[in-house]
Amino acid sequence: GHLKLHKLIAFYDDNETTIDGKTNLAFSEDVGARFAAYNWNVLRIEDGNQCPSTLYEKVVQEAKSQREKPTIVVMKTIIGCGAGRGLEGTSKAHGGTFSNIEDLRAKWHSPKGLRSSGDSVDAQVASLVQRELDGLALSAVASESDAGGETVLPKFHVPQPVMKKFRDFGTRGDSKADEWEEMLLRYYSEFKDKEPDLVRDLSERMQGKYLTDDWHASINQYLNKHNEMIKSSLRTLRNEPDEADEPDAMR
């Protein structure tokens, strides 16, 4: 907003659902109002699942007409819409099994130009996206030609000096990572006989195998294992019983 990046359009999926349940468990802010305070243009679609293409196109065109503000489109949606009772509108839709997945794909992933039969919907979407990208590339070449030799950067173009700069960061990062790995190997080699327990503990921590035995002293209250609302995504705790439904490999 401060930089007036008016070509930036963001879509916010307001389905009021997180992996652990409804967002009101820990989140009650008005996202649109927050972005308005950032000096963004805020547009809203009240029924994102049933939004007709004409309304969608109208909203996008209004966003494109901005000349001083980026735009965020806040869309009210129902997660897992059409998946049936038990999944639709619940946190289970984040990773649940959809028995009617092909019907849902045909229903919701059907932009203009897709067929209901023939190639898979995913392949058709990929083809449409590629055609859009090809069109942008041709537009960029035309922009350079129309400029009559002047330096005009086409849309979505990253100048080579900028590209090189960022790739250099990656190369430097690889080098630093190699240095770190070599240092750890030297440490293991030097201290594996002098301090075997310390080296073993460090090695297992680096691999993320478990929390340390003294974690009770560091954390006053650990997350209640029996709270069914919270999905298990925690490390296995050494010397602690595992009461979760999923096997150890999934924790």
From TrEMBL:
Sequence ranges assigned to domain Transketolase N-terminal in this UniProt record:
1-106
Q: Which GO terms describe its molecular function?
A: transketolase activity
Kindly give the InterPro entries that the UniProt entry links to this protein: THDP-binding (IPR029061), Transketolase_fam (IPR033247), Transketolase_N (IPR005474)
Q: Which domain of life is it from?
A: Eukaryota
Per the UniProt entry, the signal peptide is none
Query: Can you cite an annotated GO cellular component?
Result: cytosol
Gene Ontology BP terms: pentose-phosphate shunt
Q: What is this protein called?
A: Transketolase N-terminal domain-containing protein
What is the species of this protein?
Answer: Alexandrium andersonii
